[in-house]
Amino acid sequence: MEMRSRALGTGMAVPEQVITNEDLARIVDTSDEWIVTRTGMKERRRARPDQAASDLAIPATLMALEEAQISAKDLDAIIVATVTSDTLFPSTSCVIQDRIGARHIPAFDVSAGCTGAIYALSIADQMIRVGTCRYILVVGVEVLTKITNWTDRSTCVLFGDGAGAVVLGPSEEADHGIIAFHLASDGGAGHTLHMPAGGSRLPATHETVDKLLHTLFMRGNEIYRAAVSTMTESCRVLIDRAGLDADDIDLFIFHQANLRIIEAVAKRLKAPSEKVFINIHKYGNTSSASTLLALHEARMEGRLKPGNHLLQVAFGAGLTWGGILWKW
Ligand code: COA
Question: What is the CATH number of the domain that holds 210?
Answer without folding.
Answer: 3.40.47.10
